[in-house]
DNA-3-methyladenine glycosylase II
Amino acid sequence: MAATKNKVNGVMTPAYWDAACEHLTRKDRVLRRLIPRFGDACLQSRGDAFVTLARSIVGQQISVKAAQSVWERFEALPRRMTPAAVLKLKVDDMRGAGLSARKVEYLVDLALHFDAGKIHVDDWVAMDDESIIAELVAIRGIGRWTAEMFLMFHLLRPDVLPLDDVGLIKGISTNYFSGEPVSRSEAREVAAGWAPWRSVATWYMWRSLEPLPVAY
């Protein structure tokens, strides 16, 4: 699916968003109520593969608010957030920004992969979701969740269902099961009705819990 460039602030937004919202509003009673609450806001891509993956690593296993706070401190360390610049940072400074020792290792390994040209950025547009996930999870610290966040927030893929995402499961629990615990199979069953726009529905599940848009 194509993405169109927002000329106001330079971010990329999905060309399919309005069609997806129309489909989901028609098919799903919960999304029919949720989607109008958030106006024109939608999924956005910053257009920088390294930054998106780095933000995903920073955000692993912590809240959206905490991740944003750590990222802002980390982002302030180099002059520009590039692989080469990250490789020049001192470990103590990165730890001082709030990063765990393991996340520091992951970010350095990510920077090394990009700096050495081991990441096939130019090929991703033509690759299917699972092929991209397979390439990304070969990098230290990038599991399926991080790869799925990348598919959604960088490549703007329309039909990603990140079942390992705590926010998605909580959103389904809150909106479809009155807050009762939800299994992966139950979440998958609810999301079957969202296809082929599961990325869009997931984004609205997040927004139902957190008013500020999630960004990577």
User: Anything to note?
Assistant: The mean pLDDT is 91. Strands lie at 3-5, 12-14. Residues 3-45+160-209 form a domain with the Endonuclease Iii, domain 2 fold (CATH 1.10.1670.40). The longest strand covers residues 3-5.
